Amino acid sequence: MRFLLRAVKSREVIPPHIQECLVPKTLLFLGYQLDDWDTRILLTVLNGLFPGEGLRETSHVSIQVDDGDLPPQQRENAQKHFNHYLKNNFNVSVYWGTCEDFTKKLRDGLKD
């Protein structure tokens, strides 16, 4: 967290070769929860670090495993909110399913 806070003040804390890997490349986000504030903070920091060339300039993908603990209506509302939040703020499209399902679909799509 301290690193991210320092990075907001000065993008030079991030080595140039890492900066080149972040923007304007497509990013793939894996392994976080719907309520993961670390991920939200990271996205906001990255977007602020690279204005004009930030996350909104390139499409990104997020793999989100469905949280089966929520009642169906609450889960649907949470997914809609999450999809809207990520798409509008960071140009991230969400895939709702497992990483295995995503890679299978990706592999099948590359075969076509």
**How many distinct domains?**
1
Strand arrangement across the biggest beta sheet: 1-2-3
Q: What composes the largest sheet?
A: 3 strands, parallel
The share of residues in extended strands comes to 5-15%
Segments where pLDDT lies below 50 for 5+ residues? none
Number of strands: 3
| Shape descriptor | globular
Q: List SSEs in N-to-C order.
A: HHEHEHEH
Mean pLDDT: 77
Secondary structure tally, helices: 5
The separation of the N and C termini measures 42 Å
Radius of gyration: 16 Å
- Give the helix level as a range of percent: 40-55%
Summing up helix and strand content along with how strands pair, one would put the structural category as mainly alpha
